[in-house]
TrEMBL record:
<dbReference type="InterPro" id="IPR013785">
    <property type="entry name" value="Aldolase_TIM"/>
</dbReference>
<dbReference type="InterPro" id="IPR005990">
    <property type="entry name" value="IMP_DH"/>
</dbReference>
<keyword id="KW-0963">Cytoplasm</keyword>
<dbReference type="GO" id="GO:0006177">
    <property type="term" value="P:GMP biosynthetic process"/>
</dbReference>
<keyword id="KW-0630">Potassium</keyword>
<feature type="active site" description="Proton acceptor">
    <location>
        <position position="407"/>
    </location>
</feature>
<dbReference type="GO" id="GO:0006183">
    <property type="term" value="P:GTP biosynthetic process"/>
</dbReference>
<keyword id="KW-0560">Oxidoreductase</keyword>
<comment type="pathway">
    <text>Purine metabolism; XMP biosynthesis via de novo pathway; XMP from IMP: step 1/1.</text>
</comment>
<dbReference type="GO" id="GO:0046872">
    <property type="term" value="F:metal ion binding"/>
</dbReference>
<feature type="binding site">
    <location>
        <begin position="367"/>
        <end position="368"/>
    </location>
    <ligand>
        <name>IMP</name>
    </ligand>
</feature>
<comment type="function">
    <text>Catalyzes the conversion of inosine 5'-phosphate (IMP) to xanthosine 5'-phosphate (XMP), the first committed and rate-limiting step in the de novo synthesis of guanine nucleotides, and therefore plays an important role in the regulation of cell growth.</text>
</comment>
<feature type="domain" description="IMP dehydrogenase/GMP reductase">
    <location>
        <begin position="15"/>
        <end position="482"/>
    </location>
</feature>
<feature type="binding site">
    <location>
        <position position="309"/>
    </location>
    <ligand>
        <name>IMP</name>
    </ligand>
</feature>
<keyword id="KW-0479">Metal-binding</keyword>
<keyword id="KW-0520">NAD</keyword>
<dbReference type="GO" id="GO:0000166">
    <property type="term" value="F:nucleotide binding"/>
</dbReference>
C-alpha cells in the first residue's frame, strides 16, 4: 500500500511538506514514550529537535535562552556589528531561566531628573560606578523616587541599600524560593561580579504557569548552548573570533546557496582554527551540494532554498527545491557520513515538523513559527485589530540595508536584489508554552507512524516500512479545515 520514500521521491517531482502524507502504521507504545532527543551536529545533542533561525526578527538573547531552556537551541543572527552579536551570545549564556529585563544602572552620586529613567524598568540598580560591572549597592524603585520630594538630591540620600543578589545560574525553583523566603519583588543575578539580569516575581510567576521545563541544553561549563551565524567573507573571521570568546557552542555559515568556494574555504578555516567548535554548513538542497560540504568537514547541514515563508529566492533566481524532496535527498547522503541535517524553513504546523523529521532531518529550523512569540525581538503592534510582530526575510531590502546582504549576494556583488519580503505574524504567546504543546503533537504523529524516536522513524523510512503518497489538490483541501462558515483554530 502507498509508496516507499525511495520510489516516491525519484519520479522527477519537487514535493513540499503539504504535497505528501504518511500512511499510518502500527501503535504499540504510548505517546509519552516517544523520544524526541536528537543531534544538532556531530557533537551536539539536544532534547528537542527545535532550532530558531538566525534572523533579526527571530533570534536574539531572549529567544536563544528560551530555546536552550526548552532543550533546543537558538542561532543568534549576524545582522549587526560583531561586538553586538557577541554581547547577545554572552547575555544568552549568562542566565538559566529565560527572563530578560531592561537594566538601568546609576551610581550613588547621580541624580534622577525625570521619570524617563524608569521608562524601561520599574527600578534603577545602583552600583559603585553606575555600570553593570561594578559592585551592587542597592536600588531605587519608581515609588521611592516619586515619594522623594526634592529631585535635586543625589541617589545615596534615598536609595535602598541592599546588596542582595543570587548567582546567575539559579534555576526557576531556586529563584522562586529566594523571592518567597526573602519577601522580595525582584533580585539581581550576578555572574563574576557583574549584574547580568534581574529576576522579578511577576516573570517567575509567568514562567511557572507554563508547562514544566524539561532538560535544557546545557554546555559543559553549565551555561546554555548557544549558536551564532556568520558569513563567508574575510571580515567574518574577526567576527568569529569575538563569538568564540563570547562562548558560542556552534557556528552556522549563513548562505542561501552554500555550495561555494567561499563556504568551503571558511569551513576549512573554522575547523583548522577552532577544532573544538562545531560548524554547520548550508544551505543545500541537492546531494551533490551536500557531498561537497561534507568533504570540506561540516558537522551539520542546513537544508532549504526558497522554502521559507518570507523567501522569494525561487521566484527571483529560479533555483531551489521543494522542501520535502530536499530533506529526503540530502538526508540520504548526510546519514552515510554521520552528519545530522537541519530542515530549515517552511514549517507552519506540527505536521510539517513530523514530516521533516521522518524524511531524514534530525532537527527543524524555524523562523515564522517563532517570530510572533514573546521571546522574538521587537514589540507587538496592533494591525487590523490583531496583535502582531514584525517578521522579515534576511534577504528583504529592509534587512539587507541593515547589513545582511552577504547571505544573499555571497560574493562582492554591489547591486542589491531582494530575495525576501517584510511582513508581520500574529501574537502566539511565549515559546515556553507553545513549543511543549507542539512537541506533544509531534509525538502523537510519531506514535501514529509506530516510530518511538527520530532514529526509529529514519529506520522505518529507509526499510520501506513507512509508506507515503502524494496528495492531490482536493486531498489537501480535504486534509485542512473546510466547509465551515467560521472557526476558531486553537491547538492548546
Ligand atoms: P520560515 O518558513 O520558518 O523560514 O519562516 C525561515 C528560513 O527562511 C530563510 N530565509 C530566507 N530565505 N529570503 C530567502 O529566500 C529571505 O529573505 C530569507 N530570510 C530567511 C532562512 O533559511 C530561515 O531560517
Amino acid at each position: 500500500d502507498g509508496f516507499a520514500a525511495e520510489k516516491l521521491f525519484n519520479q522527477g517531482f519537487s514535493y513540499t511538506y503539504d504535497d505528501v502524507i504518511f500512511l499510518p502504521h502500527y501503535i504499540d507504545f504510548p505517546t509519552d514514550s516517544v523520544q524526541l532527543a536528537t543531534r544538532l551536529t556531530r557533537n551536539i545533542s539536544l532534547s528537542i529537535p527545535c532550532v530558531s533561525s538566525p534572523m533579526d526578527t527571530v533570534t536574539e538573547t531572549y529567544m536563544a535562552s528560551a530555546m536552550a531552556a526548552l532543550g533546543g537551541i537558538g542561532i543568534i543572527h549576524s545582522n549587526c556589528p560583531a561586538s553586538q552579536q557577541a554581547a547577545m551570545v554572552h547575555a544568552a549564556k549568562a542566565r538559566r531561566v529565560p527572563i530578560l529585563s531592561n537594566l538601568v544602572f546609576k551610581s550613588p552620586s547621580d541624580r534622577i531628573d525625570s521619570d524617563d529613567d524608569f521608562a524601561s524598568s520599574p527600578f534603577i540598580l545602583v552600583t559603585e560606578s553606575g555600570t553593570s560591572k561594578s559592585k551592587l549597592l542597592g536600588y531605587v524603585s519608581y515609588a521611592d523616587w516619586t515619594s522623594q520630594g526634592n529631585k535635586e538630591v543625589k541617589i545615596y540620600d534615598y536609595m535602598v541599600n541592599s546588596g542582595a543578589s543570587v548567582p546567575w545560574n539559579y534555576d526557576l525553583g531556586q529563584l522562586d524560593a529566594f523571592l518567597e523566603e526573602n519577601k522580595k519583588d525582584f533580585v539581581p543575578l550576578l555572574k563574576d561580579g557583574e549584574v547580568v539580569d534581574v529576576a522579578t516575581k511577576s516573570e517567575v510567576e509567568r514562567i511557572k504557569s507554563y508547562p514544566k521545563l524539561g532538560v535544557g541544553s546545557v554546555a559543559a561549563d553549565g551555561s546554555w548552548l548557544v549558536g551564532a551565524s556568520i558569513g563567508t567573507r574575510e571580515h567574518d573571521k574577526e567576527r568569529l573570533k569575538l563569538l568564540v570568546q563570547a562562548g558560542i557552542n556552534v557556528v552556522v555559515l549563513d548562505s542561501s546557496q552554500g555550495n561555494s568556494s567561499y563556504q568551503i574555504d571558511m569551513i576549512k578555516y573554522v575547523k583548522r582554527t577552532y577544532p573544538e567548535l562545531d560548524v554547520i554548513g548550508g544551505n543545500v538542497v541537492t546531494m551533490a551540494q551536500a557531498q561537497n560540504l561534507i568533504q570540506a568537514g561540516v558537522d551539520g547541514l542546513r537544508i532549504g532554498m526558497g522554502s521559507g515563508s518570507i523567501c522569494t529566492t525561487q521566484e527571483v533566481c529560479a533555483v531551489g527545491r521543494g522542501q520535502a524532496t530536499a530533506v529526503y535527498k540530502v538526508s540520504l547522503v548526510a546519514s552515510h557520513s554521520g552528519v545530522p541535517v537541519i530542515a530549515d524553513g517552511g514549517i507552519s504546523n506540527s505536521g510539517h515538523i513530523v514530516k521533516a523529521l521522518v524524511l531524514g532531518a534530525s532537527t527543524v529550523m524555524m523562523g515564522s513559527f517563532l517570530a510572533g512569540s514573546t521571546e522574538a525581538p521587537g514589540a507587538f503592534e496592533t494591525k487590523n485589530g490583531q496583535r502582531v510582530k514584525k517578521y522579515r526575510g534576511m534577504g528583504s531590502l529592509e534587512a539587507m540595508i541593515k547589513g545582511s546582504d552577504a547571505r544573499y549576494l555571497g560574493d562582492t556583488a554591489t547591486l542589491k536584489i531582494a530575495q525576501g519580503v517584510v511582513g508581520a505574524v500574529a501574537d502566539k504567546g511565549s515559546v515556553l508554552k507553545f513549543i511543549p504543546y507542539t512537541m506533544q503533537a509531534v509525538k502523537q504523529g510519531f506514535q501514529d507512524l509506530g516510530a518511538s524516536s527520530i532514529k526509529s522513524a529514519h529506520d522505518l523510512l529507509s526499510s520501506k516500512v513507512l509508506r507515503l503518497e502524494v496528495r492531490t489538490g482536493a486531498a489537501q483541501v480535504e486534509g485542512g479545515i473546510h466547509g465551515l462558515v467560521s472557526y476558531e483554530k486553537r491547538s492548546f
